[in-house]
Amino acid sequence: MYLIAQIALPVPLHQCFSYRLPQHMLERVRAGMRVRVSFGSRMLIGLVTGIETLDHAEPSLKLIEELLDDAPVLADPMLELGHFISQYYLQPLGEVLFHMLPSLLRQGQSSHRPTQSLWHPTALAHLSSAHDLRRAPRQWRALQILLEFPAGLSRQVAQLHGITVADLDNLVRRELAARTESHESLHEGASLLAEVPLTPSDEQAQAIACVRSQQGFGCHVLEGITGSGKTEVYLHLIADVLARGQQALVLVPEINLTPQTLQRFQQRFHVPMISLHSELGDRERLRAWHLIRSGQMRLIVGTRSALFCPMLNPGLMILDEEHDGSFKQQEGVRYHARDLAVYLASRQGIPIILGSATPSLETLNNALQGRYTHLQLHRRSNRSTPAQIIVQDIRGQELQAGLSSTSLVRIQEHLQRKQQVLVFLNRRGYATSVLCHDCGWRVHCPHCSVYPTLHQGIGRMLCHHCGWNCAVPQSCPDCNSTRLMATGTGTERLEQLLQSVAGTCPIWRMDRDSIPNHRVLEHTLAEIHQNQPGILIGTQMLVKGHHFHAVSLVVVVDTDAGLFSADFRSPERSLQRIHQVAGRSGRSTIQGQVILQTHDPEHPLLQCLIRSGYHAVAQIMLQERHQLNLPPYSYQALVHCQGRSSAEVQQFLLEIHTIFRLISPYGPVCAPIEKKAGVFRAHLLLQANGRPALHQQMANLPAVCKDKARHGIRWWIDVDPQDLL
Prior knowledge:
There is one protein chain. The protein is an alpha/beta fold. It has 5 domains: 2-106, GIY-YIG endonuclease (3-Layer(aba) Sandwich), CATH 3.40.1440.60; 116-182; 202-377, P-loop containing nucleotide triphosphate hydrolases (Rossmann fold, 3-Layer(aba) Sandwich); 388-429 and 490-627, Rossmann fold (3-Layer(aba) Sandwich); 635-719, Alpha-Beta Plaits, CATH 3.30.70. The protein is built from 21 helices and 30 strands. The strands form 7 sheets. The protein has a 7-stranded parallel β-sheet, with helices on both faces. Strands 16-26-25-17-24-23 form a 6-stranded parallel β-sheet, sandwiched between helices. The relative contact order is 0.08.
């Protein structure tokens, strides 16, 4: 009898590899452990996915060189999730499983749980003589917090209370505390809650009761207008989970939302919590992985990759802004965190909440079909009146940086009332292109089929697709004219115009150029939340989950953007953005106004959104999708291809199309941006009326693509694509 281990390796091959187990490993190896093996001429880290028994030896099989773990780094639920991702999204299993681990574990670092420092109050700390710290307020506060944790206070919990390691070590020097190293779990203080919960409204109470009444798995869609108090529903349900000693995971679409979300939870709960996102360093991520895996971190807030955190005792999952496209991974292992979260919650037998003011059509359809429980919040929690929406027809009007004279007057009026104004334009930079007024020549990116954007702040033309840049030309290379014009409007140009309107009021521009990381964002938001009059200018960064209490006017500069596009999902996203940004206005006692500048004021979807709200317009879009047999009424996959020439790319996809003609009704087409970063791009759409039928037909698609690919051709498969551009 011989034991053979099936090993998944981080290579782009859709298979596992067999290795023999050395005698000394026979009793130790289990699925989910890491091993070091010889693969060709290299030594690689692999993950054991299973053990097989053979009657005879296979001399050609190599031996496993080294076992790296004493316990699995991927528990059974995560291994099962990895297999599901590999099969559903047609991704190599090895790449999937390694994507689920912190990078240091992928590199072979130890998975042994590190010790952590714990500070304990000494006997002296309980004596009245210990209270001679009145002149050292930080140490005095540290002592009061320490006394609430007789079993030990960790660095993480201390930070939640604003206490530093230096404060605690000062208490050690005064013999008021003792420091030890321990593997023990963190302990909460005497009280789970750090503040008294708000009394939920009737609608909130009904939603909370509905989730509580369902045992085990249940997917609940929480559809609530902006300001309706979805977060308060989350807080009540998280409190239930924490009271049972379980962990809760909250996913948000972008890093920028993690600080404010974590801060709100810290205000409510007196438990260890942590945030997970891509800006964490490798050691920080590994440390967080250990703390979550041991059960020490009770509440986890993160972006899509936090879905793979190894919770010891999961009790609840929440996806806030579930409609957001950022939940879809577009590079490497391509998956949708929303769909995987529902699958994982079902396997773990826990409830999951998908929250949004503008649910995706897929999620809304599942709710309307009864697959998900549909919970709705129709009223703002603070009883404020919904903002007044004004559709402004700008046809024939003279515009300054995209703004009409009427909009400029309204902006000045609201600033004079000591209120804030939000101007939304989902386009960064100063101008969309530079052209010659005499002959029509435009600056063109040599590597992409697009025009580069003028960024006046750095004095360069910048391509947002490949990063190519150049100096702003002084004359036309075709006709030598110096009459060059900057056309189109971006957030930089808006800021320049509004400086003359704002007077002494501050202007906060929020886009990827001005807000490079979440620390700058936190500082900017802190200024805005002082509620002084000013103007907020920004892209969709402003739309997601922010509460601006002093904003009384929202101006959407280009309402038509996205309503006319080659991507059938574009109108849905555009209307979601409009609805979300409109909800930033009038969130307190101030009566809000929203100005929608448009060249198509009679657009039926726009009119329905204004008259009847997002839910009504979503049902119209669902009817259109049904008539056109588009998702969610059909299922799609996209074969992307890129290469050195358009002919090579088209030929590759034509060969794939010939084999999969049954589920490829349209044939290959060039991508809307055909050339990007120096390569030509095209794709082939595969579609079927049922998910099983699509996957059955695609079973050998990776093998066929690999066989047909030639030198210089790069391809990948995107199942359930969210972006056709």
